[in-house]
Amino acid sequence: MKLYTAKSLDELESLIAELGNDALFRGQSTHFGDLGKPSVQTSFDRRGCIPSEMLKWSRYARNVLDVFIGRRDNHLDFEQALLQHYGWRSFYIDCSADPSVAAWFASHSYSDRATIEMSEDCTERPVWLRKRMARYDFKQGEGHLYVLDKMAAARCGLIDLAALSIEGFRPRTAAQAAWLIGPLRNAPVPIECFRAQITADRGLLRDYAASHGKTDTNALFPPASDDPILDALLGLPWREIEAARDSKIQIPSMKRALDLPEYHESYVKIAWPRTAFFRGAKIVETFKSIDGDPVGGISVNVPNIVLFGSADKATPMLFPNVEALISKHGTVAFEIDELIQHANMGHLTMYQKGIGVIPRADDLFEICELLVEHPGLEMTRAGFNTGWFYRRGTNGMWLREAHVDECPCGDAHVHNQHVSALHIAEAFLREPSSFEL
Length: 437
What we know:
It comes from Rhizorhabdus dicambivorans. The protein is of the alpha+beta class. The chain has helices at residues 9-19, 43-47, 51-68, 75-86, 99-107, 150-154, 172-175, 202-211, 217-220, 228-234, 283-286, 305-308, 320-329, 412-430; strands at residues 2-6, 23-28, 33-34, 37-38, 93-96, 108-120, 126-138, 142-149, 158-160, 178-181, 194-201, 238-240, 253-256, 277-278, 297-301, 331-340, 350-361, 364-373, 381-384, 388-392, 398-401.
């Protein structure tokens, strides 16, 4: 790797032109590692893992991708891209095909702070909202622009995120001409990936970025009105901060479902009905029955991993513990302590809160979504959506069976997620002590 120092804008332009053929760029306001040996590590390596939050971020990232770019063979790669670029952690290093993007990051430093706003739900009941407001500020000093060899980086794994473009919009990955290197685990980017390091005054790097249109945060972090992915993530349900409850203060304190950094003001005085402020209400404590259930039965509280996790697709479809509950109680509703919003339903007040298993005939079961209506602070209805049907064979295995009353969507991916949730619920019934509620 070669080391360069740029003293003028012309010199910086010349170096980038000379070194930037078939290259990628990364900018940092601080150099880590020894001289000539940068240490660039993933956010997972730097900050560790919080499994419950990782599952939640991943679930929502998959759902957003399904809605806006469709399902792809390399879905996991793009899921990691959303984690990396919208505020969580991944096993990848982000870089850019645009040197002016890297120069902007090399000349600006990130910071964030918690803020509290008072807003009102759709019926004008007050709520406190905690947000994580983020910003990038220019600070005097030296910045570092790394030129990465694309061919060498490809040996570690390389993803062009231009595929996350959405016609008519400007998602963050497109605004940043983003690429990812990896996955990398417990190791920095290999030194052979670095073609050069250009050190320059941050003011010079800022001016270079500005000369290419990167003048402020909006250039790299488009607002929700331009970025439907960000809009979907910001539209997720709010959740009460239970630790902040105070019997003397009747106004609930809320946080976003995903604690993502926000770069733009999002204050509203009175929220739309589609904005849910969830306080932990349980269906069994709120309603006497669930719409769409002709049998009646039991509601079982299960860990959130039932819906946020994924079961091995090869797991045999054997559900003896679920069957025992059905035999004793009838319909079984497995309910988590969250509201899950599907990105394609962001304009509605409907949320998934679990799955249901309805006995339809001898050895015939319907697996479906458990939905609730939750405008503002109140959960007002609960019901089962139409599902797919499964027949238990003589060997105890459940097999899909076409039925005149089944959900007509034809989307096996959606209904396979219900089966996956049922597998995890079965494991929880078998050994609840191995799960955290």
